[in-house]
């Protein structure tokens, strides 16, 4: 039996992580200036285990267990979750693709997200579109009970599909998610598009299944609503030291109950909301160690409930410079400005709210962050 053991049977397990911490100044959080020590302003702070076992014939078992945490106080980034950032296992074949099961990032974030400033370290979470409405920030939304398929890359093209179960008896569609996406790369150019739908995220208005696919218990639901549909596309190109990108996303949210503020929890908001995000971004690599980047997002909205109709819009500007001491350690300085107008009175929609911060008491908010980041 020992002689019969296949020579190709190999396995590996890797411990990895990233710590992002720094200082943040904001001019208005609930009417007051604020200096704070904060973490995960650009990227999520995580540690994890990932591994693979060769099963032969081009097939291998793969897994990942990842926990996000807050470096300023050591608490879990996703409250109550042991491996809140990712927890999945699957099979990967070099010719047929990868099938995985567990708590995972959605397919829209996987392929369209890398074309935005908000998912990349040269912009990050603080540069997210208003209310993180399209799930494109640095992996802040993680979906439970997910079956995902990722195709192999074929002539620069790849595709993904997912279905996330509600896991509720008698409520198959109560807090589920599904979507698909595709990308294409050719030389310096990258294109991607996708669609994502969330049904009764966070359990919806009646809170019938708050811990389903998109959980309100750990803050994964950016909106608690009957239905949220997201679609969009983006492209970027590298021209020597300069990379430029354009991204459009459309979010339609129906039967809302509340919206999440990372600095203030869930804030009541009823009715329907439509948002179109138009982002232009650029990154210039001055030296291999030093880069500067910028992004501008115009978000055009339409809101209505039983009492009013309004057409709010947001202007969000991000500037950042980053210097790498090594391949694993860097420091960055980033500023974000956001202004909203046209929102209904006495509504959270009228309060500027830069992602990761508490809402402003006015239509404008400015934040400046300096951070230290280390990967291992």
What does this structure look like?
Strands 1-3-4-5-6-7-8-9-10-11-12-13-14-16-17-18 form a 16-stranded antiparallel barrel. The chain is mostly beta strands and 376 residues long. The protein is 1% helix and 57% strand. The chain starts with 10 loop residues before the first strand and ends with a strand. The protein has one domain (22-375): Porin (Beta Barrel). The chain is globular, with a radius of gyration of 21 Å. It has one helix at 107-111; strands at residues 11-29, 32-39, 46-56, 59-68, 86-93, 97-104, 143-150, 157-164, 176-186, 189-201, 223-239, 242-261, 265-285, 290-304, 309-310, 313-324, 329-341, 364-375. The protein is built from 1 helix and 18 strands. Homotrimer.
Short description:
By secondary structure, the chain is mainly β.
Strand order of the largest sheet: 1-3-4-5-6-7-8-9-10-11-12-13-14-16-17-18
The CATH architecture can be named as Beta Barrel
The total domain count is 1
Main β-sheet, in a few words?
16 strands, antiparallel, barrel
Number of strands: 18
According to CATH, the homologous superfamily is Porin
Q: Regions with pLDDT < 50 over 5+ consecutive residues?
A: 1-8
The SSE order reads EEEEEEHEEEEEEEEEEEE
Percent strand equals over 45%
Mean pLDDT, rounded to whole units?
A: 94
Helix content: under 10%
Helices and strands in order:
Layout: E1 11-29, E2 32-39, E3 46-56, E4 59-68, E5 86-93, E6 97-104, H1 107-111, E7 143-150, E8 157-164, E9 176-186, E10 189-201, E11 223-239, E12 242-261, E13 265-285, E14 290-304, E15 309-310, E16 313-324, E17 329-341, E18 364-375
Antiparallel strand pairs: 1-2, 1-3, 1-18, 3-4, 4-5, 5-6, 6-7, 7-8, 8-9, 9-10, 10-11, 11-12, 12-13, 13-14, 14-15, 14-16, 16-17, 17-18
InterPro entries: Gram-neg_bact_OMP (IPR050298), Gram_neg_porin_domain (IPR033900), Porin_dom_sf (IPR023614), Porin_Neis (IPR002299)
GO biological process, one term: monoatomic ion transport
Protein name: Porin
